[in-house]
Design goal:
mainly alpha, three-stranded antiparallel beta sheet, 9 helices, 3 strands, 45% helix, globular
């Protein structure tokens, strides 16, 4: 039974998350003319939501008085609060008046919750229209949210809480892609004065 213990196991790949710049996020959102699509993409980025969390949002989960969004039953079936920005709230109010969703915040043409495939298509088409070379998915916007918060000096524990990570180790991956931390480090080649 232990004859395979001596075999070397393949190493699990540890890829860094794909992140787009703040300018690319801005261009992505400004490309969208449909208020529903604009709100969907803005929510993914501004609140760091997972795709499933976005499509399960209900209008009552937007707590405008406290400027937070209640995310119910996130990964690991845990509830949490995340950020709600002023400009996002303004767009959500405009969207709500126009579309009048009944049960879910984003509903399909025949009612019922919006599909994940539709959300992915919105993000993909907007990224293509903007000319972003990287593969942009709803999760790319979540990664960008976390990385940009870290670059702005937000404590890793707060980012962990906003993302709904149970372990800080999961959140620490963003320290590898945040470029702010690299800005103060000088390349050894530059110190040679060549």
């Amino acid at each position: 039974p232990n004859r395979f213990y001596g075999l070397e196991r393949p190493r699990k790949e540890k890829k860094l998350p794909v992140v787009i710049s703040k300018k690319e996020v801005s261009n992505l959102i400004n490309t969208l003319v449909n208020i529903k699509h604009k709100c969907i993409v803005s929510l993914l980025y501004a609140s760091g939501l997972r795709l499933n969390e976005l499509i399960n949002l209900k209008p009552k989960d937007i707590e405008s008085e406290r400027m937070v969004i209640l995310v119910r039953g996130g990964k690991g079936n845990r509830d949490r609060y995340t950020l709600l920005g002023e400009s996002l709230l303004k767009n959500l109010r405009e969207y709500y008046k126009e579309y009048k969703p009944k049960e879910y915040l984003f509903e399909g043409g025949n009612g019922g919750k919006y599909t994940g495939t539709s959300v992915q298509a919105i993000v993909r088409k907007a990224a293509h229209k903007t000319g972003i070379a990287k593969k942009v998915t709803p999760h790319t916007l979540r990664h960008s949210f976390a990385t940009h918060l870290l670059e702005n000096g937000t404590d890793l524990r707060y980012i962990q809480s906003l993302l709904g990570h149970s372990s800080s180790t999961t959140t620490e991956i963003y320290t590898h892609v945040a470029i702010k931390s690299f800005e103060s480090i000088q390349s050894p080649l530059d110190s040679l004065g060549l």
